[in-house]
Amino acid sequence: MNSKPSFSTQSLEPSKIPSHIAIIMDGNGRWAEKRLMNRIKGHEKGSATVRNIVRSCREIGIDHLTLYAFSTENWQRPKTEIAALMTLLKKFLKSEQKELADNNIRLKTIGQIERLPIDVQKELNRAMSTTKANDGMQLHLALSYGGRAEIVKMVKDIATKAKEGKIELEAITPELVSEHLYTGHLPDPDLLIRTGGDMRISNFLLWQIAYAEIYVTDTLWPDFSREEFVKILFAYQQRERRFGKI
Ligand code: FPP
After folding, report:
1. I need a labelling partner for 38 at 20 to 30 A (CA). Which of 109, 130, 174, 245 fits?
2. Residue 1: is its pLDDT beyond 50?
3. Which of 24, 28, 110 is the pocket-test mutation for ligand 1 (most atoms within 8 Å of CB)?
4. Cα gap 239→74, rounded to integer Å
């Protein structure tokens, strides 16, 4: 983040920088398999891409970056792969401590954090508490996250309050629903990027992406570069967002 903005960054229109970008980081496994390596090597290389893209976002002036790091479905992967991902996450939280502090980035999470191993939860809590006063950018890690599970939780929370007489039925509005999701008062993502070429949403931020611009690139996450990221931002800025109007 101490590096100077590149020429391509300067070609972006400052008034049209998205406030919130969400990314489905796909393709780590294929990246490794193509090189006859263990899939875990792909996740390791993917961690370096995380670092690079977080830096780029901070430098460009993005307010919120949400990364799909581990889905509710990912618990069905082999135990060794899950363990390796948890170790990588812990490593990332430790090694990025200074980087987050120096660059005024606040770390937050969305998802079923209580399902993560205790040592990972501890490291997350430490990183969230040491960065909680930072107001330059928010980095949201989606961990054991699933959009449907999030919606079920929201319905239960609102139904409980309604049953207890704390909420009138008329008070149930889209805004109230949003407030009861993990993302709370965050602005909805303006841009959703998926690497790895698959044209699907994979249970990510189902409610929140209602009006997000979607960009899918064939590039596998470990190969995803700052240059391509800036190109996508440039393409986003050329799109006309109508929000259902004409
Ligand atoms: C999808 O690739 C990626 C994941 C399930 C995990 C994402 C994790 C990282 C980028 C590294 C660790 C995260 C942080 C925040 C440090 P895949 O394995 O499904 O790839 P494939 O579709 O090619 O098999």
Report:
1. 109
2. no
3. 28
4. 33
pLDDT, mean over the chain: 95
pLDDT bin (cut points 50, 70, 90) of residue 208 is: very high
Residue bearing the CA closest to ligand 1, atom 22: 27
Task: Examine the pLDDT at 37 and tell me if it is beyond 90.
Answer: yes
Query: Given the DSSP bridges, would you call strands 137-145 and 105-110 parallel, antiparallel or unpaired?
Result: parallel
pLDDT for residue 7:
46
pTM (whole model) above 0.85: yes
Q: Where are the domains of the chain?
A: 30-61+83-105+122-135, 147-186
To which residue do tokens 């049953």 refer? 163
Q: Is any atom of ligand 1 closer than 6 Å to the C-beta of 145?
A: no
Residue type present at position 114: E
Residue nearest atom 7 in ligand 1 by C-alpha distance:
69
CA of 25 to the centre of ligand 1 (A): 6
Could you tell me if 239 and 213 are in contact, meaning their C-beta atoms sit under 8 angstroms apart? yes
Work out the percent of the chain whose per-residue pLDDT is above 90.
Answer: 91
**Ligand 1 centroid vs 244 CA: distance in angstroms?**
33
